[in-house]
Design brief:
This protein is mainly beta and about 300 residues long. The chain is about 0% helix and about 40% strand. The chain has no helices and 26 strands. Strands 5-6-7-8 form a four-stranded antiparallel beta sheet, with no helix packed on it. It is globular and about 50 Å long. The protein starts with 7 loop residues before the first strand and ends with a strand.
């Protein structure tokens, strides 16, 4: 639930945590964080979006004089779902958000001056290829999955083999950008032709997140859960989603898994966030994170 610990930070790999919510208040209440991302090119620069639509914050944790989160302006009234970067464009000042008004871009490090990036609105999930900023994937509630080869300015629907339903998360392999994964309410899907067509993997059920190892395109993680059945699961594939290892025991997590972060330089270091309840809330506090070590 909302409170003084809506955001926690760790400087020792997740062993200990401390509150990092200074400035994250709205109408006197600490906000719930929807998504948080590091800037891929600027050390220390962090961005986040919150549950109350249209609120976008930034902060540089390396700047000791910056003691609280800074509110980006020009986005109020938008329901934001996530953050996008375009790291291969040599334009570190370019930051994007997506949500019910589509993709909005700031050329001012996200401080202000947001402009409409495409005509597509109502985006549920989106991702930019790590090694090709022109390749963008997005899911919209009525059109379904779409891909773009011009940086998200225009999109082409692509639902061959994929039913039109909410895709909760999209992940793209770093080296082979033709390999794309989608987490949905009907399982994990895979494309090996850049999103032109899709096929289901052997992982069925409700999945909220999928993530490809930045160091190994063949290693894929998928997590989710069925709220009604009171079951939560986390899987790993070592062959690009063709087969999956037995699920990790996550008995200490009591909510559906909603986020997975694999360290970009140390694949053995993985953080898993439990999406706290149907709206990302938890009676015990904010998103609970555990450090996962997989058996070799």
């Amino acid at each position: 639930k909302s409170g003084s610990k809506a955001l926690l930070s760790s400087l020792d790999g997740g062993k200990t945590w401390e509150a990092y919510s200074d400035g994250l208040t709205y109408n006197g209440t600490t906000e719930m964080v929807r998504e948080i991302k590091f800037h891929p090119q600027i050390a220390g620069l962090v961005y986040l979006t919150t549950e109350s639509g249209g609120r976008f914050y930034w902060r540089n944790y390396l700047n000791k004089q910056m003691t609280s989160w800074q509110l980006g302006t020009g986005l109020l009234g938008n329901w934001l779902r996530g953050i996008l970067f375009f790291p291969q464009t040599n334009a570190p000042s370019k930051v994007a958000v997506y949500g019910h008004r589509g993709i909005l871009v700031s050329e001012n490090y996200g401080r202000d001056q947001w402009t409409q990036h495409s005509a597509v609105i109502g985006i549920i999930s989106a991702a930019v290829a790590p090694s090709d900023a022109k390749r963008v994937y997005a899911n919209e509630g009525t059109v379904g999955m779409m891909y773009s080869y011009n940086g998200g300015k225009t999109f082409t629907p692509s639902n061959k083999g994929l039913k039109i339903h909410p895709i909760r998360a999209i992940s793209i392999a770093k080296n082979d950008t033709q390999r794309v994964y989608a987490a949905s309410d009907n399982g994990v899907f895979r494309s090996v032709d850049g999103g032109e067509s899709w096929s289901p993997t052997s992982r069925t059920g409700m999945f909220h997140i999928v993530a490809v190892d930045p160091q190994n395109d063949d290693v894929v993680y998928a997590g989710g859960g069925d709220w009604g059945a009171n079951t939560w699961y986390l899987y790993r594939s070592s062959d690009g989603g063709v087969s999956w290892d037995p699920p990790l025991n996550v008995s200490d997590i009591t909510y559906p898994i909603g986020s997975i972060l694999v360290h970009p330089k140390n694949s053995d270091l993985i953080f898993v966030g439990a999406a706290a309840g149907p709206q990302g809330r938890c009676d015990e506090g904010p998103t609970k994170t555990i450090h996962v070590t997989w058996a070799k």
